[in-house]
Write a structure and sequence with these properties.
The strands form 5 sheets. Strands 2-1-5-8-9-10 form a 6-stranded antiparallel beta sheet, with no helix packed on it. It has a 3-stranded antiparallel beta sheet with strand order 6-7-11, with no helix packed on it. A 3-stranded antiparallel beta sheet has the order 12-13-16, with no helix packed on it. The protein is globular, with a radius of gyration of 20 Å. With 205 residues, the chain is mainly beta. Strand 6 and strand 7 form a beta hairpin.
């Protein structure tokens, strides 16, 4: 979603992911300052799982919002776009998606707790998606270690397991050990190279 608004996601158990906490399992909150985007991702989520997305306006303006709902069994992604939604610093909005996929965005423009406007998505489309993950890079090695930098090498995975070419690499760093549950909190490295075909030996500094 593009600002000026904050976003918060709640699952069916009431667990929350937003700017200050990520309690939904396998979830991640990101902000991209250069494009004023705010993103919540739930890795491995399915379209039939029920979620509620809350929006709180932070200033006067328009927001653009996209909701992506994967269906792994069908190999598809439902994408709902909400364009140029007007908000002020008192606007509240809610959209619930999951088993019904109604996707109506309910908006309270004056902050009195009552719905003033229901907005359907401007565009809804279903795209075929390849959900087969790349293979794991199991031979990651570091060299030329220096203050603030290191050179990493590994055997490139493919797009589907060990076949093809991956779409992108995701390398992250932290001042403490990175375990699986803390991966989302590690800092993504910038300036990564374009992926090489499976079996190649790329390196990253």
């Amino acid at each position: 979603m593009h600002s000026p608004a904050d976003i918060d996601l709640y699952d069916a158990q009431g667990r929350h992911t937003g700017r200050n906490e990520q309690l939904i399992p396998n979830s991640e909150y990101r902000e991209i300052s250069t494009t004023h985007e705010k993103i919540i991702m739930v890795y491995g989520a399915e379209s039939l799982e029920r979620y509620r997305l809350d929006i709180k306006g932070t200033d006067q303006g328009n927001i653009d919002m996209t909701v992506n709902m994967p269906d792994h069994s069908a190999g598809s992604m439902t994408i709902a776009d909400y364009n140029a939604v007007p908000v002020t610093n008192v606007t509240m909005g809610t959209v619930t998606f999951g088993s019904t996929n109604d996707l109506t965005l309910s908006l309270d423009h004056n902050g009195d707790g009552s719905v003033d406007h229901n907005k359907a998505p401007d565009v809804v489309e279903v795209q075929n998606i390849d959900f087969t993950p790349p293979a794991q890079a199991t031979d990651l090695a570091g060299a030329n270690l220096a203050y603030g930098s290191a050179r990493l090498s590994f055997t490139a995975p493919g797009d589907d397991g060990d076949q093809g070419t991956a779409t992108a690499y995701d390398v992250r760093y932290s001042t403490s050990a990175i375990e699986d549950q803390y991966w989302k909190d590690a800092v993504p490295a910038s300036g990564l190279p374009e992926p090489l075909p499976a079996g190649s030996t790329p390196s990253v500094t």
